[in-house]
């Protein structure tokens, strides 16, 4: 994983680089905002994460952020600053910072924040989820099954169908209740109708059945649902 570190304090920059290297990150460390922009603007280099100090020679961390986000870059950015003013935090977050760390900080906290950013990073999300013979594709929002080498079924899913099937595929052969599904997939109070889960399960099941998968989602009356991946074979 490649990290761009922009920090103009030599001691702190060196300490962060050393800790990141020990934790298997590849680190490009620059001490100047303008130089940092040259690194970011270089299409050949793909970063996983960036760490920007707030006050820098050349471009400030905030200006770097503005430039990145104006180009619609999704690069996760952690801002470092000695400032502890609420308005600065708001300005940083408004400019598109993903997280914020106030100096002085411990290296353990820095590493924890970076791990959290990686988990949220769209670039690092899995592209597919495979359970049994089913392959859920995050890029195309489809599910497919390789029935035989020559025969492949691909089914397009709506957002909710996709989320629901993903939930089932992450809990194969387990009994899951309507409440568990609702708590996971619907916002609180967003859809207060009590049978929203049952209705969505019905839609998903109907779509899957039209492709010949009739028994993937089993209803266990009074208990919930059970996803049977073997039924896709
Ligand atoms: Ca600085």
TrEMBL record:
Annotated Gene Ontology cellular component terms: cytosol; protein-DNA complex
Keywords from the UniProt entry: DNA-binding, Phosphoprotein, Transcription, Transcription regulation, Two-component regulatory system
Modified residues (4-aspartylphosphate): 53
Domain Response regulatory: 2-118
GO BP terms: regulation of DNA-templated transcription
GO MF terms, alphabetically ordered: phosphorelay response regulator activity; transcription cis-regulatory region binding
InterPro entries linked to this entry: CheY-like_superfamily (IPR011006), OmpR/PhoB-type_DNA-bd (IPR001867), RppA (IPR049767), Sig_transdc_resp-reg_C-effctor (IPR016032), Sig_transdc_resp-reg_receiver (IPR001789), WalR-like (IPR039420), WH-like_DNA-bd_sf (IPR036388)
SMART domains: REC, Trans_reg_C
All residue ranges annotated as the OmpR/PhoB-type domain in the record: 126-229
Ranges annotated as DNA-binding: 126-229
NCBIfam families membership: resp_reg_RppA
Protein name, per record: Response regulator transcription factor
Organism: Symplocastrum torsivum CPER-KK1
Taxonomic lineage of the native organism: Bacteria, Bacillati, Cyanobacteriota, Cyanophyceae, Oscillatoriophycideae
């Amino acid at each position: 994983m490649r990290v761009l570190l922009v920090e103009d304090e030599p001691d702190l920059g060196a300490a962060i680089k050393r800790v990141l290297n020990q934790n298997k990150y590849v680190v490009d460390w620059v001490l100047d905002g303008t130089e940092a922009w040259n690194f970011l603007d270089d299409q050949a280099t793909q970063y996983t994460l960036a760490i920007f100090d707030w006050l820098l020679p050349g471009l400030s961390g905030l200006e770097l952020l503005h430039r990145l986000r104006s180009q619609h870059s999704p690069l996760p950015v952690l801002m470092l600053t000695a400032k502890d003013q609420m308005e600065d935090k708001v300005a940083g977050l408004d400019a598109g910072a993903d997280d914020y760390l106030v100096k002085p900080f411990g290296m353990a906290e820095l590493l924890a924040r970076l791990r959290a950013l990686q988990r949220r990073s769209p670039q690092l999300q899995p592209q597919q989820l495979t359970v049994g013979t089913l392959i859920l594709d995050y890029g195309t929002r489809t599910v497919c099954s390789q029935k035989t080498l020559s025969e492949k079924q691909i089914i397009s899913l709506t957002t909710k169908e996709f989320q629901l099937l993903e939930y089932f595929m992450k809990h194969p052969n387990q009994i899951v209740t309507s409440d568990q599904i609702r708590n996971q997939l619907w916002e609180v109070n967003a859809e207060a109708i009590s049978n929203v889960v049952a209705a969505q399960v019905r839609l998903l099941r109907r779509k899957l059945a039209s492709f010949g998968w009739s028994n993937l989602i089993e209803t266990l009356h009074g208990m919930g649902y059970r996803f049977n991946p073997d039924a896709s074979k």
